[in-house]
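To assess whether the prediction recovers the assembly geometry, we first specified each molecular entity separately, as shown.
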Amino acid sequence: MSKNQAFHRRGFLKTAIAAAAVAGVVSLPSFAYAQSKIKVGLMLPYTGTYAQLGVAITNGFKMAMSESGGKFGGHELEYFTVDDESSPPKATDNANALVTRDKVDVLVGTVHSGVVMGMVKVARDSGTPLIIPNAGAGAATGSQCAPNIFRTSFTNWQPAYPMGKVLADRGIKKAVTLTWKYGAGIEAIEGFKEGFKKAGGTVVKELFLPFPSVEFQPLLTEIASIKPDAVFVFFAGGGGVKLMKDWQAAGLKGKIGLYGSGFLTDGVLDATGSAADGIETTLHYGDGIETPKNKTFRLNYAKTYKLQPDVYAVQGYDAGLLLVAGLKAVKGDMSKKKEFLSAMEKAKIDSPRGAWTMSKAHNPVQDIYLRKVVNGENKVTGVAQKALADPARGCKM
Amino acid sequence: MDANTFLIQVLNGIQYGLLLFLVASGLTLILGIMGIINLAHGTFYMVGAYLAFSLSQHFGNLWLAMAGGVVIAVVIGLVLEWLLISRLYHRDHLYQVLLTYGLILIFEELRSVVFGDDVHGVAVPEILRVSIPLTETLSYPVYRLWMSAVCLVLAVGMYFLIQKTRLGMIIRAGAANREMVQSLGININLLYRLVFALGVALAAFAGMIAAPVASVFPGMGNQVLIVCFVVVVIGGIGSVKGAMLAAILIGLVDTFGKVISLEIGGVQLLPQLSGMMIYVLMAGVLLARPEGLFGKRA
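The predicted structure of the complete assembly is given in tokenized form:
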């Protein structure tokens, strides 16, 4: 067995022990305490495909909390942790358990869009404040938006939309889109199409794969026969790796431009190797953003967790900053809910990705960066669009 | 779609079909001949892919990794049959479903502990790392052609083994009447153990040769499992010939379903509903021939 795997195993065990420790602490019955504690319910994936994302978000979140001192007007924090397993059928029950059994003051979660919609339902029914640190389902800050629901990440539409204009401005007129046929993919493709059409481009064909199939060969053949100027895709994780490798093996690399939402090339560059070189994506974060804030954040995160932070850690960190802003405004007194929500609404988040504010629908108004894969890194090459807000269609608030 | 593109798509379909056949052939052996419902079949495919990943890192060579991987897979198959499966031949199918579902969970958890939940890539061997230019924009990776050739050779070999050799005759006889074969002095337990190990090895080998093009990731086996059952059901349970034909049919239907645009009454059907096409095919075949293309009438 190679060193690499031995490390993975050790890493896994460490995480497992840490998770077990957290779970152990929070499940202890809490007896009387002088000052009531602020109960934070973390509902995130700690097992399954998204386990690493859940851990990164938790790390970022706790880092923001400890940087703030972790105490607000004498009130300490108490965490309640639930592994949501990225399982939509269990979402409502899990969120309900945190709200009704543990009586948390604020819910934080999650990664999977299907699961987050269950949390949104519980938050709307119970009025418990919800902070979403990843899932990009448009509806959470669109048709299902609510005064107590906030998001510190993105909508699926948001990173895709600016790429349309970027490509059209380069004189690209004809594009093909390709994605898995599921919520996030469809929303991202709609965003790209909107931006591309507005700037004068035409999407000549939309190709789909059932989620999570990765048999790209027929689609690549079709793309080669259409010969578009550009192909815009939405994939993440293993699917993205395979697409980029197949793209290169099919000889399309260098002949037809491949572009995507930044999730295509985030966290998978080691597995992809040279096939990813030169691919441009748009996202609200990039590893090499040259700001003091980002540098400090990356340094502190690496020191604390012995891991390099990624976009998910940043989103978790910002979820923490947002909560801190709310808690500071009410000095930890969660009975002042109105002031608490209004402080979060008005907060200016000094994020590693660059400062951002909340839109009316409670989604970040943020810069979307243009990034290019160079030597196994997502290098930021510019800003694709400044201060972009999601259109939040259907939000009545 | 011009003629060139059409032909390339046919090639894509056949190539995908051959890979499906390789995975499904092990399932058709275990299900058709031994009568075991093996839900863990996709898991063995995943085990193969992870073996290719870890052994090729260890040896620095995919060929050695495949050789070593097949040996390990055979051992896994023998041990599982001896330890668990052999106890279920006389039990109801429900017990087999429970056991093999349990195996899925155990192997997934082991995978998570040993390899973590990352996506991994396996390098294509140097000698096959070329592509043949077909049109001015499209090249065909030689590795994919090589995969198809290997699948074909294995298919012919399996057909020969089952239909033309003495061993194959005994296997088929065992499928028809286990007790009779045993009373003729043949060690049927050993035979079944070998068939099960062969089935596991076929699935694992499919995982190994697919690893460089499919990448290696958690849950990869479960995706394959469902399509494999579709292949076996369309082909007729236990028929190697049927599995071959069904796999290629599915490969073609899946390929063309993804790229043809079809509109009826202003409603876009394809490629919108491409994910459903193979199940539509299955439903159609089962309506016409409930026993599958080459299945025996019950």
